[in-house]
Specification:
The complex is a heterodimer of chains A (131) and B (217). By secondary structure, chain A is mainly beta. In chain A, 0% of the residues lie in helices and 61% in strands. In chain B, helix 1 runs antiparallel to helix 2. Classes of the chains: A mainly beta (131), B alpha+beta (217).
Chain lengths: 131, 217
């Protein structure tokens, strides 16, 4: 199994519990590091802005934006480090309910052919500042 | 002020159930009549005299099916029965697309067609979570209502042609969620009116409003 590690760090948000909060129509900024500990035969590595639902219902999800971090195979010891920023939409806001939860996250993906992708997730809150 | 209409989902569901119940009951009656008729003909042809218990078997067998049909008709017809005592309400709101933190002025006007003992009148502002999921080949929808605000009016008697007039302000709370629609998951806002009448089916209707993903400045 390919061995690569993601590290996603978010910046400039407002701390809200264990997560960072960002305002609708704002910008989420951060830094991503990807290290290949051994040769990784991948199609590419990507950083995505996504939301999905969790709870009783079947999953809904949307990918709003994507940054290509790398294409093709990565040799052992390959290290990618870069800052990123995504423009956030107006909605949907993050929500935690009885049957429906809306989760926003930055998702790092190493796309492996015929294998389970390497995925790292950094959730955050998309919501306006409440009075 | 803007007029709002009843959310169509309730009537459609009850209409479908009523149609199914009528077809079920009618089919059961026809089957029972044919079977009982056949048994009667067989008994006549056999040239026996006197009462035979086997003649009752088709009737006894089909009775539970007819009972289920009648029960479903009663359940499905209840919302339509309520309309026999109350006119269609006239509802307006100050906005159908309020923002978070907005006040929504709501007026409700309805005429009682007959003198009615009302046990309770209640209006609710609801946020409804609706989650659709599949199990095997079946699809289910689970809902959970958050009652955000409610007004209750006490029991009293309304005379024939008396008009019920209500005017209230709803507040979309500052920490509320906007309306959200996805394929399987939805967060929907409703104003629900419920009138409990003594000895009669409840009148329950819901009116959808769209809460915008904006916060009042």
């Amino acid at each position: 199994m390919a061995n690569a590690e993601f590290q996603i760090t978010l910046r400039e948000g407002e701390p809200a519990g264990a997560l960072m909060r960002y305002a609708p129509n704002g910008v989420v900024r951060g830094e991503v590091r990807l290290t290949a500990h051994e040769p990784v035969n991948c199609r590419g590595a990507y950083l995505r802005l996504m939301w999905h639902t969790e709870g009783r219902g079947d999953r809904d999800e949307a990918k709003l934006d994507e940054i290509v971090l790398a294409t093709g195979a990565m040799p052992a010891g390959a290290h990618i480090q870069r800052a990123f920023e995504f423009r956030l939409p107006q909605m949907p806001w993050s929500f935690a309910g009885e049957y429906v939860n809306i989760i926003w996250e930055i998702v790092g993906v190493v796309d492996l052919p015929l294998a389970v992708d390497i995925v790292a997730r950094e959730p955050f809150i998309l919501a306006p500042r409440r009075a | 002020m803007q007029k709002i209409q009843q959310s169509s989902r309730n009537n459609l569901g009850h209409g479908c159930l009523l149609a199914f119940a009528l077809i079920w009951t009618l089919s059961s009656c026809v089957m029972g009549a044919l079977w009982a008729g056949g048994a009667l003909l067989a008994w006549t042809a056999s040239e026996r005299s006197g009462f035979e218990w086997f003649m009752l078997f088709p009737v006894i067998f089909i009775l539970p099916f007819i009972g289920v049909g009648v029960f479903l008709i009663v359940i499905a017809a209840r919302p339509f029965l309520a309309g026999a005592r109350l006119s269609k309400p006239d509802i307006t709101v100050s906005t159908t697309t309020p923002r978070i933190g907005d006040d929504v002025t709501f007026t409700y006007s309805q005429v009682f067609k007959r003198a009615t003992e009302v046990e309770q009148i209640q209006f609710k502002l609801l946020l409804r979570e609706s989650a659709r999921y599949r199990r095997g080949t079946d699809t289910y929808t689970a809902t959970h209502d958050h009652v955000v605000q409610q007004f209750t009016y006490p029991a009293r008697r309304y005379e024939e042609s008396e008009r019920l007039n209500v005017r209230r302000d709803w507040l979309i709370p500052a920490d509320a969620m906007h309306t959200f629609r996805a394929t399987n998951n939805q967060l929907l806002w409703f104003i629900q009116a419920q009138i409990k009448m003594k000895g009669w089916a409840d009148f329950i209707e819901e009116y959808a409003i769209e809460v915008a993903p904006e916060v009042r400045a």
